[in-house]
Amino acid sequence: MYRMDTHITVKTLLKSGISRRQISEQLGIHRKVIKRIEQEPEDGSGRSVHRREKKLDEHQEQIKSFLSADWTAELIHKRLEKEYSLKVSYATVSRYVRSLKSSPESYVPMEAKPGEEGQVDFGYLGKFKCQDGTQVKVWVFCMVLSYSRYGYFEVVTDQSLETFIHCHIHAFEAFCGAPRLVRIDNLKAGVTVPDFYEPLIQEQYASFLAHYGAAAIPCRVYTPEHKGKVESGVKYVKNNFVRGLQHRQRESLASELRVWTDTVANRRTHGTTKRIPWEVWQHIERPALLMLPELRYKFYHVEERKVTRFGHIIFHNNYYSVPYTLVGQMVRVFSDGTLLRISQQEQELALHHISEDKGRYVTQMAHLAPHKQPHTEEYYLQHLQEQIGDAAVQLMRLMQKNDPAHWKEKVRGLLRLCRTHPQQRLAQACQRALDHGLSSYRSVRDICTMIEHSPPPCEHFEAPPGAGGMAHDLSIYDRLGR
Asked: Tens digit of pLDDT for each residue in 410-469?
């Protein structure tokens, strides 16, 4: 490839009207090379620009449409291979995608009304020493009101959902109200699936915000400009607060951060608004925030469980009942250490007190199938009266007196005899049992069997005169002994 000065010389000679043959003779360059240089376009600096046609140029519009839908280079590569049968490497597609993204995007400033929006994020502050000499990773939770830039900062050691919600509660109480919208990053704690257009907000986080009358708006993935106010707040904590610390001690970090927030962060003149955040919040934004509810939101740990074939879910080595129709299905379990709430599709199915024992079945009778639920005394009295009669009712009272622990089993046995014996026979058997002071199910069953197999009573029969020797009057034998 010829040097750039050769290209410039050829271009200059051609513009002077010198033929390609003469230039070839003077510079010792083949005329085909001179012709190619002549046909090359020029950029604004006068240098010739030669761009080789790329393999993906013919699919450029399709790739741009994928990029507009927030597709990654990996997904675009798989789609091109599948639909267009392109034999191209992922690295090639990735470079081509970067070349299409090279032009900077123009962003529109996002203005918010007083009390309308708060932005939330976590920022990593580094490792801090504890009193026992160990080190612990520390993050800062940051919530900034978009209108006043009034901020709340809290030191945390994890980014769990429980920590996330508790920090929100503390921020709302520090603001003396809640914003109507909370713009969050695509954190695992707040957003289950990062999707800007149809985000799947975790059920408990949505329930928490609803308790305060607020709603969440997740940011688009890899677009920090959508929450630039809180991004700036996190950077301000790192650059101003953390760098100004004399001792990186974990125990004193929280108190020092509170002092810095009240005396520096919220009292300075903000670089963008040119106003003091505390003054704007105090006079304008604070009255516009939503009023806090009387009671704090109560946090529940959320887990999923499968209903066993016994109609129970397993939680902390115990078994808790749910309606019998849910056997084999998945349900959600909410626990706060005292109560256990079980729900499905946002509908509460059961509420239990958490047992401190192990291996215990905690069952609500209403969750059992109707034919397996225990019946009341009135139920048995009614059915005995209807199916057998008064004797069976009296026999049940005797069973309750003689065997108060197992009388229900005996009564169920009496009712089961109705399937094999008629009502009249059962009533007669119950009466005979009462007459003999018997109160067991087996006695009634045996009496019914005896009545069933005993021969019918014989009627009085008088033999006619002269019907044979068996018809003679036997009273003559009494007279013979006199």
From this structure: 888 888 888 889 988 889 999 988 888 888 888 888 888 888 877 766 555 555 555 555
Quote the mean pLDDT of the chain: 80
Q: Are 33 and 11 in contact (CB under 8 A)?
A: no
Question: Rounded CA gap, 263 and 350, in Å?
Answer: 49
Burial class (CB in 10 A: 0-12, 13-18, 19+), 407: buried
Chain segment 316-341, per-residue pLDDT in tens? 899 999 998 999 999 988 888 888 98
Residue with tokens 């729900």: 343
- Coil, strand, or helix at residue 136? strand
* Residue 212 neighbours by CB distance under 10 Å: 21
Whether residue 171 has pLDDT greater than 90: yes
φ, ψ dihedrals at 349, nearest 5°: -105, -35
Measuring CA to CA, which residue among 349, 317, 355 is closest to residue 333?
349
Where along the chain do its domains lie?
4-39, 57-100, 117-288, 301-371, 377-453
The burial of 334, by beta-carbon neighbours within 10 Å (0-12 exposed, 13-18 middle, 19 or more buried), is given as buried
CA 211 from chain centre, in angstroms, equals 17
Which CATH class, in words, describes the domain spanning 117-288? alpha beta
Q: How far apart are CA 42 and CA 390, in angstroms?
A: 115
**3-class state of residue 450 by DSSP:** helix
Q: CA–CA distance from 434 to each of 45, 389, 429, 440 (Å)?
A: 120, 13, 9, 10
Contact 140, 237 (CB under 8 A): yes
d(CA 110, CA 107): 9
Q: What is the CA radius of gyration of the chain?
A: 46
